[in-house]
Design goal:
It is a single chain. The protein has about 325 residues and is mainly α. The chain has two domains: about 10-125, no CATH class; about 140-315, Intergrase catalytic core (hpI Integrase, Chain A). The chain is built from 14 helices and three strands. α2 (about 25-35) runs antiparallel to α3 (about 40-60), α5 runs antiparallel to α6 and α7 runs antiparallel to α8 (about 160-180).
Amino acid sequence: MNEHFMSRDHDNMKTIIHVRKELPDVVSEFADDCIQRGLSAATIKEYIVALRSFYAFLVNKIEQKKGTSLKDIKNDYLETLQDNDILEFVSISNEINPNKLTPVRLFFRFLYKKGYIQTTPVEKIVFSKKKTKVPKKGSSQQVSKAIEIISSGLGCEKHKTYLTHSKTRDTALLLLLVTTGISPFSCVSINIDDYDMDEGSLVIHHKNGREKRIILDSETAISMHNHFIERNSIKAEPGNENAFFLSSQKKRLSIRALEDIIKKYTLEASEGKTALTGRDLRNLYIREQYKKGISIENISKSLGLKQVTTVSDCLIEE
């Protein structure tokens, strides 16, 4: 597995281990069940942190002796909860948040499946999903102009010194993002040994832990090859030797730095009107693929998504 992903995974697991110590043993059982079902450490961390908030809500709700802890909440009490109690938790910030319900819903399903409770109030709660329109920012012309600015330095006087050291890297970055639709996370997670120069292919690491080898188009393959040659001549800082994309400090490029690069060139390409983000480039890729007749399902699969909603929401007409 990608070393950058493993480091991130390790941090998430540390949080999970720390938080679950504060909660009843049944929450640890739930976390173990999530691990066995193949959920990512990042997802499990979100669930466990959300359940800590839920148990804290219950402690505040119970009028018991002072000093009641999260561990004092028993399964018998969970079974007495009504759907209104759950709604009170998910709307605690004066605005109903369906995302807060998901970890609680899954947790109660686990309790019911294991026989710890006989009834669950969560299944009675249903939220209607509202389709939101994804702003259609950017165009292939704007991105092409941004790449031209990088490769030629046109209209970019203030960046010429910077471009001397980053031209091949930044060209490869923008081409890679717009021709593959990968996320900024996947982009900065690329390692040198993920790249196959002879085949013109690349292993992509997704946030959910999945990995997939993709074949690059000819323009992107050439750009990646040029950067690969330049990258091999740079001595990275300790711990960053395998990173494919480096910052000016010779460390693995961060997501924030990548977003700054995208913003800088796309803003220049639009003459100061519209700066794009990594998400905008991914949405642009989705729209371009759909125009070519690629199905929503296949686009989702190519991006490593478990559900098609990310793609379908992007295609909602304004």
